[in-house]
Amino acid sequence: MWIVLLMFLAMSPAAFADQAALRISGESVSLSEIDALSRPKIDRLHKALADQAGRTLDRLIDRRLRASSPETKPSSPEPATNEAVRAFRSSRAEDFEGPFAPVETRRNPSAEDPAIRHYLEQKARATAEAEARRDLGKGHAVKILLPESGELEQPLPPQRTVAWVDDVPIPADALEQAAALHFYRLRKEIHLERRRNAETLIEHRLLGREARRRGVAAEVLLKQITGDTTVGDEELHAFIEAERAAGRPVSDPERARQYLSFRKAHARRTTFVESLRASARIEILFEEPPPPRLPMTEANAPALGGAGELRIVVYTNYRCAPCRQTHREIDRLLATDGNVRVIFRDFIPVYDPVAGEAARVSRCADRLGAFQRMRSELLTRNPPAFGEVWYEGHALSSLAARLGIDRADFFQCLSSREIGEAIARDTAEALELGFEEAPSFVAQGIPLSGFRTAESLTEILRRRTPRARPQPVEGKAGPR
């Protein structure tokens, strides 16, 4: 009993904050002292962790309730009417016709109608889902046991219960897995803030010790080590000429003189502090959080490459410039390494009918055995402008002929509701994982965001890191 109590106290946020986080030549500095330098920011990050945990736990509870009541589904909202679109535009006339509205929008206000319609339908869908969520909880006992916000900066014990749904626990490891990337970003931000604070404390403590050793005040010591920082006219002129040559003309010479004086003082102070550090023993006792390992779910999505152990799941589209560059880098990677398999999940984080159309045609081409041919076609064409389309009706017929697929099957697939739902699921999964931009990747379980070269992807794939647990694939054929 007492052992359990002591273990609990040792892991409490208060006890954690009192632990030694830094030692400067044997002198301990607690975590609370480090956090005190930027307490408001640390508190905001703790709150962000708690908010993220709450949102993720709500999602886990919803899934548990839906699994127990599969017949309860949110009703599909009616499509937004033309009257609703016109009413929305009238209520925000400044956005469409005012002086700050985009030129193209002022010239053709109706060009924004598809985006307005999408927004209204998304809003109606969110309202329907919220109502369904309220109905879903009726007749069920739900108890939430989220820890304090400060406690969330460390991974929770896997078997700790964070919620009960009808006497069935939701363990902490389910929460950690579902919010892995979200938690990692916030925990790393806390770590980086503490490292900055630790560096500030180290400098102040070392300067204070040296000042006491010399028997002077710290301010006097700083004046002694910085010395005369006067900037002469010749030095200022050389700086102004160098800036002009670099394309950065100086408009205020006196301000430039002040900057050079500050830079000189800062360099001398930094050099002096480094000499003090060299003779001191510095121990930073708090560790950087390890990056998460994310699931690699193929979800019956298009895939290219071999059937080897090295896998990349890429969440991308055919519209954004970094996405298109990444597609070409993936081609380079696949051409040089036959042991890599790349799974293409659709990720359209903002409303974009052009990207949505490309996702549909590539998905349907994949269903009919022509994914790589369709992908090459999309990458050799320039994406159409927003509001336009890749292929008109007659162009789709000739596209099917070029791809060597049945026209009727292609058209049937394009109009299929299932394809749209698959694209929406991919995007929702990417957002739930914590990705915010396309392209994003899960390479052997390691999350990455933004443009990547073939070489950088190869380096990550070849790292000797534990493999992510493979996920089941639903009836997916081999690579094409």
Automatic annotation (TrEMBL):
Positions in coiled-coil regions: none
One Pfam family linked to the record: Thioredoxin_4
SUPFAM superfamilies given in the database record: Thioredoxin-like
Keyword Signal part of the UniProt annotation: yes
Entry keywords, A to Z: Signal
Leader peptide range in chain numbering: 1-17
Domain Thioredoxin-like fold: 311-461
InterPro entries given in the database record: Thioredoxin-like_fold, Thioredoxin-like_sf
Protein name: Thioredoxin-like fold domain-containing protein
Species: Methylocaldum marinum
Lineage per the UniProt record: Bacteria, Pseudomonadati, Pseudomonadota, Gammaproteobacteria, Methylococcales
